[in-house]
Protein backbone atom coordinates (compact mmCIF):
# COMPACT_ATOMS: atom_id res chain seq x y z
CA UNK A 1 0.00 0.00 0.00
CA UNK A 2 1.36 3.39 -0.99
CA UNK A 3 1.62 5.68 2.04
CA UNK A 4 1.58 9.00 0.17
CA UNK A 5 0.30 9.00 -3.38
CA UNK A 6 0.09 11.74 -5.98
CA UNK A 7 -1.74 12.01 -9.27
CA UNK A 8 -0.82 12.54 -11.97
CA UNK A 9 2.81 11.47 -12.09
CA UNK A 10 3.46 13.55 -15.19
CA UNK A 11 1.61 16.65 -16.36
CA UNK A 12 2.36 18.47 -19.59
CA UNK A 13 0.31 21.54 -20.36
CA UNK A 14 0.28 24.86 -22.17
CA UNK A 15 1.00 28.24 -20.63
CA UNK A 16 -2.11 29.90 -19.30
CA UNK A 17 -3.96 26.68 -18.48
CA UNK A 18 -5.31 25.74 -15.05
CA UNK A 19 -4.34 22.38 -13.58
CA UNK A 20 -4.64 20.43 -10.36
CA UNK A 21 -2.43 17.88 -8.62
CA UNK A 22 -3.94 15.54 -6.06
CA UNK A 23 -2.34 14.03 -2.99
CA UNK A 24 -3.61 11.40 -0.60
CA UNK A 25 -2.03 9.82 2.47
CA UNK A 26 -3.23 6.69 4.25
CA UNK A 27 -0.97 7.06 7.29
CA UNK A 28 -3.54 8.76 9.48
CA UNK A 29 -1.35 11.85 9.71
CA UNK A 30 -2.65 15.27 10.70
CA UNK A 31 -0.24 17.41 8.67
CA UNK A 32 0.35 17.57 4.94
CA UNK A 33 2.72 19.62 2.80
CA UNK A 34 3.47 20.71 -0.74
CA UNK A 35 7.06 21.19 -1.89
CA UNK A 36 8.47 22.41 -5.20
CA UNK A 37 11.76 21.12 -6.59
CA UNK A 38 13.09 23.22 -9.44
CA UNK A 39 15.57 22.37 -12.17
CA UNK A 40 18.47 23.18 -9.84
CA UNK A 41 17.14 20.54 -7.44
CA UNK A 42 16.36 22.95 -4.62
CA UNK A 43 13.47 21.59 -2.60
CA UNK A 44 11.33 24.36 -1.14
CA UNK A 45 8.24 24.18 1.01
CA UNK A 46 5.17 25.90 -0.37
CA UNK A 47 2.29 25.11 1.97
CA UNK A 48 1.43 23.07 5.01
CA UNK A 49 -1.96 22.06 6.39
CA UNK A 50 -2.71 20.71 9.82
CA UNK A 51 -6.16 19.20 10.37
CA UNK A 52 -7.37 20.92 7.19
CA UNK A 53 -6.11 24.31 8.42
CA UNK A 54 -3.41 26.22 6.54
CA UNK A 55 -0.43 26.72 8.87
CA UNK A 56 2.45 27.47 6.53
CA UNK A 57 2.15 29.62 3.45
CA UNK A 58 5.52 30.54 1.99
CA UNK A 59 6.05 33.26 -0.57
CA UNK A 60 4.08 31.59 -3.30
CA UNK A 61 2.10 33.37 -6.07
CA UNK A 62 -1.61 33.41 -5.37
CA UNK A 63 -2.10 31.47 -8.60
CA UNK A 64 -1.32 28.48 -6.38
CA UNK A 65 -4.22 27.48 -4.19
CA UNK A 66 -4.07 24.44 -1.94
CA UNK A 67 -7.24 22.76 -0.77
CA UNK A 68 -7.66 20.18 1.95
CA UNK A 69 -11.11 18.54 1.85
CA UNK A 70 -10.14 16.25 4.72
CA UNK A 71 -7.02 15.31 6.69
CA UNK A 72 -6.06 12.60 4.21
CA UNK A 73 -6.09 14.82 1.13
CA UNK A 74 -4.25 17.95 0.06
CA UNK A 75 -4.72 19.10 -3.50
CA UNK A 76 -2.85 21.83 -5.32
CA UNK A 77 -4.59 23.93 -7.93
CA UNK A 78 -2.55 26.18 -10.19
CA UNK A 79 -4.16 28.92 -12.28
CA UNK A 80 -2.70 30.59 -15.37
CA UNK A 81 0.32 28.34 -15.56
CA UNK A 82 3.64 29.97 -16.44
CA UNK A 83 6.87 28.54 -17.82
CA UNK A 84 8.54 29.04 -14.45
CA UNK A 85 6.05 26.71 -12.81
CA UNK A 86 7.75 23.77 -14.50
CA UNK A 87 9.16 21.65 -11.69
CA UNK A 88 8.60 18.50 -9.70
CA UNK A 89 5.98 18.94 -6.99
CA UNK A 90 6.14 16.71 -3.94
CA UNK A 91 3.43 16.11 -1.42
CA UNK A 92 4.37 14.96 2.09
CA UNK A 93 2.70 14.19 5.39
CA UNK A 94 3.71 13.96 9.03
CA UNK A 95 2.01 12.92 12.23
CA UNK A 96 2.00 16.49 13.50
CA UNK A 97 3.45 19.86 12.59
CA UNK A 98 6.50 20.12 14.73
CA UNK A 99 5.64 19.79 18.34
CA UNK A 100 9.26 19.15 19.19
CA UNK A 101 8.67 15.51 19.96
CA UNK A 102 10.91 14.40 17.13
CA UNK A 103 9.12 11.43 15.69
CA UNK A 104 5.93 13.33 14.97
CA UNK A 105 7.79 15.65 12.66
CA UNK A 106 9.10 12.93 10.37
CA UNK A 107 7.83 13.61 6.89
CA UNK A 108 6.85 10.96 4.36
CA UNK A 109 7.00 12.05 0.75
CA UNK A 110 5.02 11.06 -2.29
CA UNK A 111 6.66 10.08 -5.59
CA UNK A 112 6.31 13.54 -7.09
CA UNK A 113 4.46 15.09 -10.01
CA UNK A 114 6.61 16.35 -12.85
CA UNK A 115 4.90 19.43 -14.30
CA UNK A 116 6.06 20.73 -17.66
CA UNK A 117 4.62 23.99 -18.94
CA UNK A 118 5.12 24.61 -22.66
CA UNK B 1 17.65 29.59 4.89
CA UNK B 2 19.18 26.23 5.76
CA UNK B 3 20.95 26.20 9.08
CA UNK B 4 23.32 23.43 8.05
CA UNK B 5 26.40 23.07 5.86
CA UNK B 6 27.41 19.89 4.10
CA UNK B 7 30.04 18.95 1.50
CA UNK B 8 28.62 19.14 -1.97
CA UNK B 9 29.68 15.65 -2.98
CA UNK B 10 31.41 12.52 -1.73
CA UNK B 11 32.45 9.16 -3.11
CA UNK B 12 32.41 5.88 -1.24
CA UNK B 13 33.51 2.41 -2.29
CA UNK B 14 30.81 -0.23 -2.27
CA UNK B 15 30.84 -2.24 0.95
CA UNK B 16 32.66 0.46 2.88
CA UNK B 17 31.19 2.76 5.48
CA UNK B 18 29.99 6.11 4.18
CA UNK B 19 30.48 8.94 6.67
CA UNK B 20 28.56 12.08 5.78
CA UNK B 21 29.37 15.15 7.89
CA UNK B 22 27.09 18.08 8.68
CA UNK B 23 27.76 21.33 10.53
CA UNK B 24 24.92 23.00 12.41
CA UNK B 25 26.77 25.42 14.67
CA UNK B 26 23.72 27.61 15.40
CA UNK B 27 21.49 24.76 16.54
CA UNK B 28 19.50 25.50 19.67
CA UNK B 29 18.99 23.21 22.60
CA UNK B 30 15.63 21.74 21.61
CA UNK B 31 16.16 21.38 17.87
CA UNK B 32 16.45 17.94 16.35
CA UNK B 33 18.81 17.03 13.53
CA UNK B 34 17.11 15.10 10.73
CA UNK B 35 18.60 13.25 7.81
CA UNK B 36 16.73 12.53 4.60
CA UNK B 37 17.93 11.27 1.27
CA UNK B 38 16.65 11.60 -2.26
CA UNK B 39 17.40 8.90 -4.74
CA UNK B 40 17.26 10.11 -8.32
CA UNK B 41 13.74 11.06 -9.44
CA UNK B 42 12.13 9.85 -6.21
CA UNK B 43 10.62 11.67 -3.26
CA UNK B 44 12.87 12.35 -0.27
CA UNK B 45 13.08 9.49 2.23
CA UNK B 46 13.49 9.83 5.97
CA UNK B 47 16.61 8.17 7.35
CA UNK B 48 17.12 9.06 10.99
CA UNK B 49 16.94 11.89 13.49
CA UNK B 50 18.43 12.73 16.86
CA UNK B 51 18.62 15.35 19.58
CA UNK B 52 21.83 14.79 21.48
CA UNK B 53 22.38 11.08 21.87
CA UNK B 54 23.76 8.88 19.14
CA UNK B 55 21.05 7.01 17.29
CA UNK B 56 20.98 3.86 15.21
CA UNK B 57 18.29 2.23 13.12
CA UNK B 58 18.17 -0.32 10.34
CA UNK B 59 19.33 2.21 7.78
CA UNK B 60 22.06 4.21 9.46
CA UNK B 61 23.72 5.59 12.55
CA UNK B 62 23.76 9.20 13.62
CA UNK B 63 26.63 10.54 15.67
CA UNK B 64 26.08 13.97 17.24
CA UNK B 65 28.98 15.79 18.88
CA UNK B 66 28.71 16.69 22.53
CA UNK B 67 28.35 20.40 21.75
CA UNK B 68 25.73 19.48 19.11
CA UNK B 69 27.37 21.74 16.55
CA UNK B 70 27.97 18.94 14.09
CA UNK B 71 26.86 15.44 13.29
CA UNK B 72 27.82 12.52 11.06
CA UNK B 73 25.53 10.13 9.27
CA UNK B 74 27.05 6.70 8.89
CA UNK B 75 25.92 4.12 6.35
CA UNK B 76 27.83 1.08 7.65
CA UNK B 77 28.07 -0.88 4.40
CA UNK B 78 27.28 1.31 1.44
CA UNK B 79 25.64 -0.30 -1.58
CA UNK B 80 25.06 1.06 -5.06
CA UNK B 81 21.45 1.71 -4.09
CA UNK B 82 22.66 4.20 -1.48
CA UNK B 83 23.75 6.58 -4.25
CA UNK B 84 21.63 9.64 -3.55
CA UNK B 85 21.60 13.21 -2.29
CA UNK B 86 21.68 13.27 1.51
CA UNK B 87 20.14 16.19 3.36
CA UNK B 88 21.01 17.20 6.90
CA UNK B 89 18.20 19.34 8.30
CA UNK B 90 17.54 21.38 11.38
CA UNK B 91 14.00 22.64 11.60
CA UNK B 92 13.49 26.40 11.41
CA UNK B 93 10.54 28.48 12.52
CA UNK B 94 8.24 29.86 9.83
CA UNK B 95 6.49 33.20 10.05
CA UNK B 96 3.40 31.75 11.70
CA UNK B 97 5.40 30.20 14.50
CA UNK B 98 5.14 26.71 13.08
CA UNK B 99 8.33 24.88 12.36
CA UNK B 100 9.19 23.86 8.84
CA UNK B 101 11.76 21.65 7.22
CA UNK B 102 14.16 23.53 4.96
CA UNK B 103 16.23 21.48 2.57
CA UNK B 104 19.67 22.77 1.63
CA UNK B 105 21.79 21.58 -1.26
CA UNK B 106 22.73 18.33 0.46
CA UNK B 107 25.62 15.98 -0.22
CA UNK B 108 25.58 13.95 -3.39
CA UNK B 109 26.94 10.55 -2.39
CA UNK B 110 28.23 8.38 -5.20
CA UNK B 111 28.83 4.75 -4.26
CA UNK B 112 31.45 3.27 -6.54
CA UNK B 113 31.58 -0.45 -7.46
Question: What would you say this structure looks like, in words?
Answer:
The complex is a heterodimer of chains A (118) and B (113). By secondary structure, chain A is mainly beta. Chain A is 0% helix and 53% strand. Chain A has strands spanning 4-7, 10-13, 19-25, 31-37, 43-50, 53-57, 64-70, 73-78, 87-94, 108-109, 113-117. In chain A, a hairpin with a 5-residue loop joins strand 4 and strand 5. The mean pLDDT of chain B is 89. Chain B has no helices and eleven strands. Chain B is mostly beta strands and 113 residues long. Helices cover 0% and strands 46% of the residues of chain B. Chain B has strands at 9-13, 18-23, 33-38, 45-50, 55-56, 61-64, 70-75, 84-90, 92-93, 99-100, 107-112. Classes of the chains: A mainly beta (118), B mainly beta (113). Chain A binds chain B through residues 4, 35, 41-45, 48, 50, 55-58, 90, 92, 97-98, 100, 102-103, 105-112, and chain B through 30, 32, 34, 36, 38, 41-46, 49, 51, 85, 87, 91, 94, 96, 98-103, 105.
Average pLDDT confidence of chain A is 90
Largest interface (C-beta under 8 Å) = A-B, 28 and 25 residues
User: From N to C, what is the helix and strand string of chain A?
Assistant: EEEEEEEEEEE
Biggest sheet: strand arrangement of chain B: 1-11-8-3-4
The proportion of strand residues of chain A reads: over 45%
- Tally of strands of chain B: 11
Q: How large is the count of helical segments of chain B?
A: 0
Describe the secondary-structure layout.
The complex is a heterodimer of chains A (118) and B (113).
Chain A: E1 4-7, E2 10-13, E3 19-25, E4 31-37, E5 43-50, E6 53-57, E7 64-70, E8 73-78, E9 87-94, E10 108-109, E11 113-117
Chain B: E1 9-13, E2 18-23, E3 33-38, E4 45-50, E5 55-56, E6 61-64, E7 70-75, E8 84-90, E9 92-93, E10 99-100, E11 107-112
Parallel strand pairs in B: 1-11
Antiparallel strand pairs in B: 2-7, 3-4, 3-8, 5-6, 6-7, 8-11, 9-10
Amino acid sequence: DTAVSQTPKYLVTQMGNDKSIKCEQNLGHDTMYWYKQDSKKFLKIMFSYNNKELIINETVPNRFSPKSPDKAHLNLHINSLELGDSAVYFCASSQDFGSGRGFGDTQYFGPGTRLTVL
Amino acid sequence: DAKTTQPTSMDCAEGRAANLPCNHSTISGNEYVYWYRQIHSQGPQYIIHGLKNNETNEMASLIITEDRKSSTLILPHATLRDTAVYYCIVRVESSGGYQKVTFGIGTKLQVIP
